Amino acid sequence: MLKLYYNLISFNSRRVWISLLEKGLPFELVPMKLDGDQFQSEFLALNPFHQIPVLEDEGFVIVESLAILDYLEAKYPTPSLLPSNPQMLGTVKMIELLTLTQMMPPMRPLMMDWMGFSEESSEKLQEAKQNLAQVLRFFESKLADRTYFGDQQLTLADIVAGTAIPFLPSLGLPLEDYPRLKDWCDRLMTRESWKQTQPTAQQITKFKAQMKALLSQRQ
């Protein structure tokens, strides 16, 4: 059986988790607290880079969320999470990569500030928001009037971007200026896979307290 090492608050973990649910695959969840368990020898034997997610499939181990998603699509192609149309496929892959390369980096300082231990200046935080706004404008234009980034079909682009964008209002970036993206987010939130993987407010609060405690110990 497939085995996913994950954390509830991890965007990277959640995108794999959602894909497994959308494909209807049986799998086992292995929670990682990230309180040092990622440095234990058993886990380092799976991923020497001590990061999540990690997927095990009948003895085969794969790390890095986008690689895991491509692996799942190749080995378990039904239902497909990639469009067959070349232009739609190009759009899907573009959105996936832009989420990781252009959206996640400016999200990090805002996440640190949200968790309560940011050392970034207000100017740097505002710059991060401006960078994110540029990405959102581009995504808004590429979504156009389609239901999903792959037209009427849920794709990996929706899963990758859809685990990050809905969180932006919590970081001070409301989506009202991006009506197509907001409607898209609302559609995603109605899917059972998003509901099942959404961390509760209590779980988020617990995670923030845990991270603050770990940071204070290191200091």
TrEMBL record:
Q: Which residues form the GST C-terminal domain?
A: 85-207
Gene3D superfamilies (UniProt xref): 1.20.1050.10, Glutaredoxin (3.40.30.10)
Please report the organism this UniProt entry assigns to the protein. Phormidium pseudopriestleyi FRX01
Residues forming the GST N-terminal domain are: 1-80
User: PROSITE patterns given for it?
Assistant: GST_CTER, GST_NTER
This protein's name: Glutathione S-transferase family protein
